[in-house]
Amino acid sequence: MKPRSQIHRALFTLSTAALAVATSATMALAAPFHQVNGPESYVTAGQEMTVTATCPPGEVATGGGGYSTSVLFTVSRSFAIDSTWYWSGRYSPGATGSARVSAFVICTTP
User: Fold this and answer.
1) 3-state class of 69 per DSSP?
2) b/e per residue, 34-67, with b = 16+ CB within 10 A?
3) What are the distances in angstroms from CA 74 to CA 30, 81, 85, 94, 101?
4) What are the pLDDT digits (tens) for 27-52?
5) Chain segment 10-28, per-residue pLDDT in tens
């Protein structure tokens, strides 16, 4: 019985070590990305607007975008400069009321 339990213990130790190595390798490859939302702004009919979202200090923008509460907001530009994402567009002149717009940025540590 004793040799069998030693074999099981050795196999368990090896499989646990292999799992730890695989997990740490996967974690090392995956950078810690997170989304930062910019403040909401209100846009009225015919108005052009640019909204922004900015990464915390020491982080860089890797992507981004924005959203509007109306399908009548037409996006004209979406781009990053340094750690800030800019999202611009125009609310249709024929729209009624206002729409909320906001930008977001995906950040990571370089």
Assistant:
1) coil
2) eebebeebebeeebebebbbbbeeebebeebebe
3) 34, 21, 17, 13, 11
4) 445 679 999 999 999 999 999 999 99
5) 444 434 444 443 434 444 4
DSSP string of 3-68, one letter each residue: HHHHHHHHHHHHHHHHHHHHHHHHHHHS---EEEEPPPEEEETT-EEEEEEEPPTT-EEEEEEEEE
- Residue 83 makes CB contacts below 8 A (sequence gap 6+) with 54, 55, 59, 60, 61, 105, 107
Torsion of CA 90, 67, 87, 45, to 10 degrees: 20
Q: The tokens 């070590």 sit on which residue?
A: 17
CA distance 26 to 49: 41
Query: And the tokens for 6?
Result: 């030693």
